[in-house]
Structures are given as C-alpha cells and as structure tokens.
Design goal:
about 230 residues; alpha/beta; 9-stranded mixed sheet; two-stranded antiparallel ribbon; 11 strands; about 30% strand
C-alpha cells in the first residue's frame, strides 16, 4: 500500500532546506511513499489535502505561517498525520506561533559558541564537539535501538521543552567561564511526541548536509520518519 509524504521546505537558507531534504527523498520513495514537495506552509491549511497525507517532513527554519496553516497542521497530526524533521527545520520554525510550539513540544533557544578568542564571525563560531547520549528509553525504542552514544562537531542545540515528550537522546551543555550559566544544562537531542492520533519526531542535529550524512544522524532520522508516519 502506497503512503503519502508531504515535504514542506523553505525558510532560512543557511540550513540548506532543498539539499537537506533531497537527501531523504530516495529513502521515502524506497519505503513506499508517494512524495510531493511544497515550498509554502500554507499547504497545511488545505484540509482535504492534509487528510490524505500520512507523513509531513518539514524543513522550514524560522519563517512565518498563517493561523490557518498552523491550525491545519495541528488538526492533521491530531487525526493521524505524522510530523517529522530535524534541527531548525522543525525545532526553530514559526517562532511567533505558540500553537505550533505546543504541537512540537520543544523550541530552539540558542547554540552556545566557542571561546570569544576563537570566534571569527561565521557559522563555525558555533561548531562545538559534543556528545549525543542515548537515554534508557532510547536504548529500546525503534528509532534509536542499537545506536550508542556518539559525538558530533556542529551546532549543539539548547532546547526549551515541556514534559509531554519522550526523550530518546540528550546532550549536555557544559559550564564555561565565559558563559553566564552556573551549572550544566541537559537538552533533549532526539524526542517523540504523541498528539491525538498522530506522532511527532524531532532530532536536533542536522545543521548542514554533512551532519545529516553522519551514519548515526541519518539512521535516526530515517527511522524517525518511518516511526512518525501514519
């Protein structure tokens, strides 16, 4: 049976929404999805179309979406459509919509930078060596089972979140003398969320295509797409 995947991509170009999502289109098609691509979240407001969508793969950093679009996405997920994505394409989308933030359950707050003496004014200022740590739940979950803790050198997302998420992996922001916080901060790095009849999947690694090509990151996202889909 063919399922339907809707890829919605756009927003800030720094996250390479076209190149990044193109990495996963062959995987979706190989797993039986009929894939369509849109560059405007207003598609979410089309209730008839959304009723036929089994999976939304979203990659829209920042940007804006209308009240009707957000309501349409919420309604679709509640009715069983899966929502999945990575990094700013899902965890830093539509900052002005509290309804969207509630749906996803976690929101990008910052990505701490290197020592002030090591910054140069480009994106690499925020590339840190950090560890993604699989939680006890994550060690048995379909998305992350068999994956060990792993390290990345990229943006380390600091996430504000609620308790209605199931955290499969975390990352810890250390205390540095040049930062204003006073104790380590643990942020979710991979999580899922049940919403009505639907499922939400979020992975915070994925700033650039090279990160998405990391074996661990790609495996987690591919499994997350399948897990979230109706």
């Amino acid at each position: 049976m063919t399922r339907t995947a809707l890829v919605v991509r756009g927003g800030w170009d720094g996250h390479h929404p076209v190149e990044a999502t193109d990495l996963f289109l062959p995987f979706l098609r190989a797993n039986g999805f009929d894939v369509t691509v849109e560059d405007d979240p207003q598609v979410y407001a089309d209730a008839d179309r959304m009723a036929t969508v089994d999976l939304v793969m979203q990659a829209v950093t920042m940007s804006d979406a209308s009240h009707e679009a957000i309501r349409g996405l919420r309604d679709a997920v509640a009715a069983g459509t899966g929502l999945a994505g990575w990094h700013g394409g899902i965890a830093d989308s539509f900052r002005g919509s509290s309804d969207y933030l509630q749906l996803v359950g976690g929101q990008f707050a910052t990505h701490p930078s290197k020592h002030p003496d090591e910054v140069h004014g480009d994106q690499t200022d925020n590339y840190l060596d950090y560890t993604v740590e699989i939680t006890e739940l994550g060690r048995t979950h379909d998305i992350t089972a068999g994956i060990d803790d792993f390290t990345l050198t990229t943006e380390q997302y600091w996430v504000l979140h609620d308790d209605l998420i199931d955290v499969l992996a975390t990352t810890t922001h250390p205390v540095q003398p040049y930062h204003p916080w006073h104790r380590p901060i643990v942020s979710p790095a991979v999580w899922t969320r049940d919403w009505g009849q639907g499922r939400v999947f979020v992975a915070t690694p994925g700033h650039s295509p090279d990160v998405l090509r990391d074996d661990n990151v790609r495996t987690i996202i591919e499994r997350g797409l399948l897990w979230a889909a109706r």
